[in-house]
Amino acid sequence: MTNNFSKLIDIKNALNAKYFEREKEIEAILIALLSKQHMLMIGSPGTAKSALAADLAKIVQGMGYFQWLLTRFSTPEELFGALSLKDLENGVYKRNTANKMPEAHIAFLDEIFKSNSAILNSLLTLINERVFYNNGHPITVPLMSVVGSSNEYPEEGEGLEALFDRFLLRFEVDYIGDDNNFISMMKGNGQNQPLPSLTMEELVNLQFFTEMVSVPDEVYVKLAEVRYHLKDEGIRPSDRRFKQSLSVLKAKALIAQRQHVITDDIVFLENSLWESPDQKELTSNIVRTLAQDTVLRAIENADQEAKEILTNLNQAPSTEASLEAVKKVKVLLSELENLKAKNPTRNVQIQEAIDRVTVIHREIASSVLDPIN
Fold first, then answer.
1. pTM here?
2. Can you spell out the DSSP letters for 50-87?
3. Domain ranges of the chain
4. pLDDT in tens, 232-247
5. For residue range 55-91, what is the model confidence (pLDDT) as tens digits?
6. 2-208 adopts what CATH topology?
7. Which residues form the ATPase RavA-like AAA lid domain (predicted)?
């Protein structure tokens, strides 16, 4: 399994080497695939949206991939397959779904918001429930993720709110900003980058291990806090969206090669918890402000305070100052022990901090036993 994790990192690095300034989108599309969620990319043509999805499909050997450009006049046949004439002669209304969306593991739908009423209901059911009704019979489809693309957000009143809501991950994609990256792109740097491979079995295993990632209570508490502050600003993501976001956090942790989610992972949900584009910036500010890793901050503060205690003692050494410093460091160690008890998934990291502070404690204690003349 360790080999699968390393392959995941290799894939991420290879795609980052090929596509300039797409680090967030590359991480997101990998997270979407691992969590079996859907991703939306909003941006102008020519920003590598479809190329990124196609390359990901090439990387996973044996993956069924479907790509289509939707228009206002797109028909069900284009997405779901033509009706079988032979079956139609017998009064059976059955579609031939070979090489169409119902048989794909990943689908890229360009201009997704051009979806019309003729295809919308079937598309929603397929995306949300992974079910396609063929001749009235529900068929479970192998679909893992849909990557939708559009040049613009849907307008209000177009009846596309439900479709927009199906995409848990939403990203705005812009043209390359940095001049050096632009020149590298123009020169074709990275285009011959060899892409690693992953089998379907390895992908399914990674998806399984994603589900097994644990979510500590502190993360649930932090999500409730985020929800409260969003609600206070009139932003009300659904309970379903919050529930689905857990799978995203687990995938985020897995990519970081962790077996548990940390509160810092919640920052990624700035791309998920807003309802309309005008809420995007405020949602990001709230999520980023609240999604601080309190354990990491506590460790950093303890490290810094212990070093300051030692520095101050060295600058003005005395037996009295040493005794006072010992008391202060003991308090820090006690706080770290309490932190460790409350955060069992972070024991290793907290113990390392305890060990560092203990070294300082011993150094100060030795000055008490061997006081400065």
1. 0.80
2. HHHHHHHHHHEET--EEEEE--TT--HHHHH--B-HHH
3. 2-208, 213-290, 294-369
4. 999 999 999 999 999 9
5. 999 999 999 999 999 999 999 999 999 988 777 777 7
6. Rossmann fold (3.40.50)
7. 219-286
